[in-house]
């Protein structure tokens, strides 16, 4: 109990950010229960209305409730972001671990393959891939996954190379442990914490990249509510109804800030030098 109290006192920011992240995720998952209106229902008689008791944040150019679209947009944006982070985390970690553990020609092929992706500007390459695949939420996730797995591969490779020479790895080999058992039981548990920190901090970055591609029309397609595309929809009404851009922009800003600060807090907690 005393240790828990000390932990709470030392990590108030971390706990506060975890609560905010949980609330944000809960809102996105329960959007269909708490949204006051159907986010897809149009009514031109209500177009571009200001804040009111019926529409707390007003309406867009098609008369749709802006608050409802923001809530549903949170679900769309966060699902796409978490899906992307999970994909690049698994793929990058698996390839980096295999490259470092087996070395030789396997390491050379995987690392030279990653060099090819590093030779292109990331966001430009993602735009090109998304443009070829066609505009959709899934294609944006695929395009960004193709570009962003490299970082996890290189970080995991460097971590595995430092771990594989440890005495307990040699002992496991002498004890007859198979290759996959050594990787799963002895190597991955030692490198996962560092990669989790990177993944947590990547949530904000990936959300920004998804929103950027959606703003360009390559992501979620109408009438699906998504924060990046909502910015695109509102840009023609910036002078008359600035809320159409301010509210989704603020939602992106707050969400990215929360997860970036959460990543910093997790890094401080897991840092062995702290």
TrEMBL record:
<feature type="transmembrane region" description="Helical">
    <location>
        <begin position="244"/>
        <end position="262"/>
    </location>
</feature>
<keyword id="KW-0812">Transmembrane</keyword>
<dbReference type="Pfam" id="PF00528">
    <property type="entry name" value="BPD_transp_1"/>
</dbReference>
<feature type="transmembrane region" description="Helical">
    <location>
        <begin position="78"/>
        <end position="104"/>
    </location>
</feature>
<feature type="transmembrane region" description="Helical">
    <location>
        <begin position="140"/>
        <end position="161"/>
    </location>
</feature>
<keyword id="KW-1133">Transmembrane helix</keyword>
<keyword id="KW-0813">Transport</keyword>
<dbReference type="InterPro" id="IPR053385">
    <property type="entry name" value="ABC_transport_permease"/>
</dbReference>
<feature type="domain" description="ABC transmembrane type-1">
    <location>
        <begin position="74"/>
        <end position="263"/>
    </location>
</feature>
<dbReference type="InterPro" id="IPR000515">
    <property type="entry name" value="MetI-like"/>
</dbReference>
<protein>
    <submittedName>
        <fullName>Glutathione transport system permease protein GsiD</fullName>
    </submittedName>
</protein>
<feature type="transmembrane region" description="Helical">
    <location>
        <begin position="116"/>
        <end position="134"/>
    </location>
</feature>
<dbReference type="InterPro" id="IPR035906">
    <property type="entry name" value="MetI-like_sf"/>
</dbReference>
<comment type="similarity">
    <text>Belongs to the binding-protein-dependent transport system permease family. OppBC subfamily.</text>
</comment>
<keyword id="KW-1003">Cell membrane</keyword>
<dbReference type="GO" id="GO:0055085">
    <property type="term" value="P:transmembrane transport"/>
</dbReference>
<feature type="transmembrane region" description="Helical">
    <location>
        <begin position="182"/>
        <end position="208"/>
    </location>
</feature>
<dbReference type="GO" id="GO:0005886">
    <property type="term" value="C:plasma membrane"/>
</dbReference>
<dbReference type="InterPro" id="IPR050366">
    <property type="entry name" value="BP-dependent_transpt_permease"/>
</dbReference>
<keyword id="KW-0472">Membrane</keyword>
